[in-house]
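Holo prediction. Input below; ligand is BIS(adenosine)-5'-pentaphosphate.
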Amino acid sequence: MSVVVLLGAPGAGKGTQAPVIADHLGVPILGSGDLLRAAVAAGTPLGREADTYMSRGQLVPDNTIVRVFLDRLEQPDARNGAVLDGFPRTRVQAEALDTELGGAGRRVDRAVLIDVPTEELILRMASRRICSANGHVYNLTSNPPLKAGICDIDGAPLTQREDDQEETVRARMSQQIPPLLDVIDHYRKTGVLRSVDGRLPIDDVSAGVIAALDDGAPA
Ligand code: AP5
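Structure of the complex:
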């Protein structure tokens, strides 16, 4: 197994669990949100375009993200596989990914859905904090750093994401969950979907994710 798609609503825990899969399989993480935030920070044309959508909680248009993400997938470090965190997010993106991988005799081997109810997600986002240096993910309630405001791993200050304001979070949920349901349906039909209860403590979700990678039965 090499290409794993991580699915879930905003805040479901994709960024928290992606490193667990990456370590288990020995493949890199390709995060669409990280890629877009880096472009925004660098002020590139992509970043300026993406920012107008991200700041309103909307998805970046398919024709923009597909080109950028598939280019990233072709880089040498992803040749032996990758964890895709945040892509695909629409049926069009899922089909474009299938076509790209199919052209190289590859496929999505597993799609893991981290399933959490919307109201719990809105609470989680308010207390999320991110390492400003390397994106390590914390939560003031469920996963606090050892020292307030400082990343345990590299000592960098923790910050709050701009799109974690409650109004933007609600917009992300209402705009992004319907296309997510299409993507879930796409992978259910191709037989690679597995679902994990994302309301459990983080370590239990990790165990469920690893079990989902090794499980041969359909969801
Ligand atoms: P992106 O960065 O991908 O954001 P997202 O999908 O909204 O997901 P998040 O990063 O907010 O949440 P997560 O699921 O990673 O949860 P986390 O692990 O941090 O995308 C940002 C934006 O870019 C989008 O809104 C869109 O505009 C654009 N974009 C990106 N990809 C795109 C695409 N393909 N097409 C078009 N546009 C695109 O966890 C959340 C919090 O919960 C943390 O505090 C964490 O510590 C805590 N937590 C995690 N697990 C648990 C648990 N089990 N119990 C309790 N707390 C937990």
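The chain is about 50% helix and 15% strand. That is the main takeaway for now.
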